[in-house]
Amino acid sequence: MPPNQLSIFQSCSSAGPESPWSSSVSQETETPSRYVLPSNLEEAIRRLDDRQLDRLMSVALEERARRKQPLVPEKSQRKRNAEAVSPPLPQGKLNAVRAAFKAGVTPARIAREFGISQQDVRGVLAGDAKK
Predict the structure, then answer these.
(1) Helix-strand-coil percent breakdown of the chain, rounded to 5?
(2) Rounded distance between C-alpha atoms, residue 16 and residue 38, angstroms
(3) Where is the domain boundary, 16, 34, 67?
(4) Are 15 and 60 part of one and the same domain?
(5) Exposed site from 21, 48, 73, 94, fewest CB < 10 Å?
(6) Angle CA(99)–CA(100)–CA(106) in degrees, nearest 5?
(7) For residue 104, is it within any domain?
(8) b/e 58-94 (16+ beta carbons within 10 angstroms → b)
(9) Rounded to an integer, what distance in angstroms lies between the CA atom of residue 110 and that of residue 100?
(10) Are 101 and 63 in the same domain?
(11) Domain check: are 9 and 61 in the same one?
């Protein structure tokens, strides 16, 4: 029976600190479909030397960070967050949007000319309709 990850970890923990957790042992093993932590994890970790413990910590933290990465790339997420929380328009722009619309300019053109989103233009015009 070929050793699995569990037996590697247990043999490392039961052999004592003088037995390094070598990569040659893990290369000789078949890759199991699922890794299982030993039931005496605390004792196994106590037997690791400082270098091995540091390596274990860094690999575990990297894996944790990898799993928590957002599904949306960071660049487009920042853009989306900026659009979602747009600051209120100054009174001067509000008046200019209203005047342009009364003059017959389309909302799309108003948004393009003033450098604001069409949603903001619709919001200003909808606010006028409520009054």
Answers:
(1) 65, 0, 35
(2) 15
(3) 67
(4) yes
(5) 73
(6) 140
(7) yes
(8) eeeeeeeeeeeeeeeeeeeeeeeeeeeeeeebeeebb
(9) 7
(10) no
(11) yes
Which residue do the tokens 């005047």 mark?
Answer: 99
Q: Tell me: do 63 and 106 sit in the same domain.
A: no
Task: Give the C-alpha distances (Å, rounded to integers) separating 38 from 31, 33, 61.
Answer: 17, 16, 19
The boundaries of the domain holding residue 118 are 87-130
Q: How many residues does the chain have?
A: 131
- Residue-wise pLDDT tens digits, 99-116: 999 999 999 999 999 999
Amino acid in position 77 = Q
Whether 37 and 46 have beta carbons less than 8 Å apart is answered as no
Using CA atoms, how far residue 62 sits from 11, 32, 44, 68, 69, in Å, is 25, 21, 21, 10, 11
Locus of tokens 């799993």 = 67
